[in-house]
Design a protein that fits this description.
This protein is of the alpha/beta class. It has helices at 2-5, 9-17, 24-37, 43-50, 66-81, 95-107, 123-138, 164-177, 193-208, 225-237, 251-263, 281-285, 295-308, and strands at 55-60, 85-90, 112-116, 143-146, 157-162, 183-188, 218-220, 245-248, 273-275, 290-292, 316-320, 323-325. Helix content is 46%, strand content 16%. 39% of the residues are buried.
């Protein structure tokens, strides 16, 4: 390009970076060469040379899941507002793949690496995450755990959570206040942070209303629509119904359970009351009472804290609130069909 314009390489570099007070004729020749050669700057090389990254990364299990997609949209929106590119990596829930993806984002010099989603918390997880956090901090970057628990007071990571337990307590209380004491919980998964915290809220509400806890009303399963259908079909196939309401661990499970109930001729809310968790857009389509999660605000907050922390490299913890969205999938027990 310098040869085409008849100037030095240094002159081309300075004009393109905007740091060189060049004569109009010289600048015109360089820009004409840029157009003729269809030149595109190597952002990666420029970032390495300048020592300043201009991107944030988000690492999720899947971009198909509505929950992850909405959090990623919040990250993208805030990153764009801050003039950063948004890098997206997926792991499929595989810990080794997550490690490799975080390493790749480090190599890309991302200013923040945001890990989103439900995980199993054990000693190996803590050791792995603490290593991520310290390595990123040493490189001038920031680890953000989004919807994941804190790692401890000595690990430099930002944590942005939403209140799963309070949300589950509130929606269970809503069912209890409508007279439902036999509430089926769909989607228990021991050891996983999100289901565990929602089960805790469900049990705490039962205790607050002095309703005996029946472990037989908690059904194990993954957090997807097919599992919701499977769990409900299996429960209905066991024999006479021993519940009047269902609390699904998320809206996807609720949608699958709703399909199974309808196939058996059961109406919502006339025969069975149903509640979910997440308030995904599809919840409004099926008139589902659910718990609203601030998905996009979760992502936006993660970016804001990572880029504008007054104390980078320290522990920060933010808890966002949840609230019930009441629709027409819950009815008082005394007006349910016989």
């Amino acid at each position: 390009m310098a040869e085409r314009a008849g100037v030095s390489v240094a002159t081309v570099s300075r004009i393109l970076s905007g740091t060189y007070p060049s004569a109009p004729t010289t600048r015109g020749r360089v820009l004409r060469a840029v157009r003729e050669l269809d030149y595109v700057a190597n952002a990666r090389a420029r970032g390495l040379a300048g020592g300043q990254a201009k991107s944030v990364a988000i690492v999720v299990n899947s971009v198909i899941s509505p929950h992850y997609a909405h959090v990623a949209q919040g990250v993208q929106d805030e990153a764009a507002r801050e003039g950063r590119l948004c890098l997206v990596g997926t792991t499929g829930g595989d810990a080794d793949r997550e490690l490799a993806t975080v390493q790749l984002m480090r190599e890309e010099h991302a200013e923040a690496v945001i890990l989103v989603g439900n995980i199993v918390v054990d000693d190996a997880y803590h050791e792995r995450m603490a290593g991520y956090a310290r390595a990123l901090a040493a490189a001038g970057s920031q680890l953000v755990l989004c919807g994941r628990p804190p790692l401890g007071p000595d690990v430099p990571a930002i944590v942005v959570e939403y209140d799963n337990t309070a949300g589950a307590h509130a929606v269970t209380s809503h069912l209890l206040s409508a007279g439902h004491e036999r509430i089926l919980f769909l989607g228990r998964r021991a050891g996983y942070t999100t289901p565990d915290s929602r089960v805790a809220g469900y049990r705490a509400a039962l205790a607050a209303y002095r309703v005996p806890h029946d472990p037989g009303l908690e059904v194990d399963g993954r957090m997807d629509r097919q599992e919701g259908y499977r769990m409900m079909r299996a429960r209905l196939d066991e024999g006479p119904r021993d519940f009047t309401a269902v609390f699904a661990c998320n809206d996807l499970i609720a949608a699958g359970a709703r399909q199974a109930l309808r196939e058996q001729g059961l109406r919502i809310p006339d025969d069975i009351s149903l509640a979910g968790f997440d308030d995904l857009p599809s919840a409004a389509d099926i008139d589902l009472t659910t718990v609203h999660v601030p998905h996009e605000e979760l992502g936006r907050t993660a970016v804001r804290l990572a880029l504008h922390s007054e104390t980078p490299g320290t522990v920060q913890h933010v808890m966002l609130g949840t609230h019930i969205v009441v629709r027409d999938s819950v009815r008082r027990r005394d007006v349910l069909s016989a």
